[in-house]
Amino acid sequence: MALPAWADHPEPLALGSAPVPEYGSGSLADLLPTLAAGMGVPGQNAAIPELTAADRNCVFLIDGLGWEQLKAHPDEAPFMTSLLASSRGGTGRPITAGYPATTATSLASVGTGLPPGAHGLPGYTVRNPDTGELMNQLRWQPWTAPEVWQPYPTVFQLAHDAGVHTAQVSSPAFENTPLTKVALSGGTFRGKLTGEDRMDLAAEQLAAGERSLVYTYYSELDGAGHRFGVDSDTWRGQLMYVDRLVQRLAEQLPPRTALYVTADHGMLDIPFDERHRIDFDEDWELRAGVALLGGEGRARHAYALPGAENDVLTCWREVLGEQFWVASRDEAIAAGWFGPHIDDRVYARIGDVVAAARDDVLIIASEREPKESSMVGNHGSMTAVEQLVPLLEVRT
């Protein structure tokens, strides 16, 4: 009988070996505060020291475009490749997404300028302590009051209040979603369907104020990665298209503008076999003592039955500990995974056990999460391929 993959290694991964995001100096949560500080918005801190102030700032967030994927595809993305040396203020280095490296968490970090432990979206799905239910923070299901779940004002709102012309240019479908309200509201939302129209309108909005802060977004690259993988022709075709969008926007920038091209996470393809996809719904050891399974395949929250917390932690470390960093809630918080501070309202949203993948593996849930379990491309953890994102810069 073959031994399971974890039995090849005698010791679980040391928590101190996890590459914690650069909160406070080089993460997505530090971007908008840095730009807003450069425009004179009160209370904002220039946390990324490599960036130079500009009167007009545009953030173009490309969902799913990791630093390593961009570097690996120069032929498909010639324009962005030409900007690699400009990343992070000309240092040629990436920034980090934050943990977990997933869309809802990252967009909240961008918009609020806060790490996950403060803004309170610490996973794809997390337990709502008030109801005991799992809440999907991307789809906002089941519904809960957005201003209660995430009470902080966005940097966009603070900039708008300070007299900066502020706009978000995205798909009309996102205009009234709770995630937009808690993460990206403030100023004016302008919905455009095509990527080309968004680029043109973003340039117009930048020129509409002497001081402007404009955000625009493209999601289809991420969708192609999830469905077909980052090694697919479909994904490469999307990368070619988004590269042309970046160039289109760059060529229309008004004077005194800085354009920053970034992403919410990277992505990697996971093979469809039992070695790489551990099925929680078919693994009695992992299920034992677990009341709710949250997060996603590479960044799991396990919520234990009362009194079973230590047993679940011990079991998960024994079963997963050579492929995942497995921590208790307090250990993950102490290690800084979710940022330097955890708000009281956020504490119980984090799992009793938190598991972050190091190797090319997933904890799927084939019965509970059939759609997510079937995805080719995945993300969420702290590895470089997921965590590092570009901060490409064009200035006029």
Terminus-to-terminus distance: 64 Å
Tally of alpha and pi helices: 18
How many strands appear in the DSSP assignment? 18
List the uncertain runs. Answer: 1-9
What proportion of the residues is helical, as a percent range?
25-40%
Strand composition percent: 15-25%
Shape: globular
Kindly provide the radius of gyration, computed on alpha-carbon positions and rounded to a whole number of angstroms.
20 Å
* Main sheet overview: 6 strands, mixed
Structural class: alpha/beta
The mean pLDDT is: 96
Write structural notes for this entry.
With 396 residues, the protein is an alpha/beta fold. 32% of the residues lie in helices and 19% in strands. Strands 6-5-7-1-8-18 form a 6-stranded mixed sheet, with helices on both faces. It has a 4-stranded antiparallel sheet with strand order 11-12-14-13. It is globular and about 60 Å long. The termini are far apart. Residues 1-9 have low confidence and may be disordered.
